[in-house]
Amino acid sequence: MPKQKTHKGIAKRVKTTANGKLKHHKGFHSHILTKKSGNRKRGLRKAKLLSKSYQKRYKKLLHG
């Protein structure tokens, strides 16, 4: 049985925390920012944790 390869698309978008959770940056923060409120843009700055269902799916793609 060959080894499972890391999914490079996911690996570039997701980082693993010390406790093994996955964090990512939200989209919609690169352009067309004038119509978005400051509150909304501030919320897009920080990295967020992925939901549990996505964490399970993405960990399979990352670690095989």
TrEMBL record:
SUPFAM superfamilies xref list: L35p-like (SSF143034)
GO annotation, biological process: translation
Keyword Oxidoreductase: no
Keywords on record: Ribonucleoprotein, Ribosomal protein
Pfam family, one: Ribosomal_L35p
Gene3D superfamilies in the record: 4.10.410.60
Gene Ontology CC: one annotated term: cytosolic large ribosomal subunit
Entry's Gene Ontology molecular function annotations: structural constituent of ribosome
Similarity section: Belongs to the bacterial ribosomal protein bL35 family.
Record protein name field: Large ribosomal subunit protein bL35
Taxon lineage: Bacteria, Bacillati, Bacillota, Clostridia, Halanaerobiales
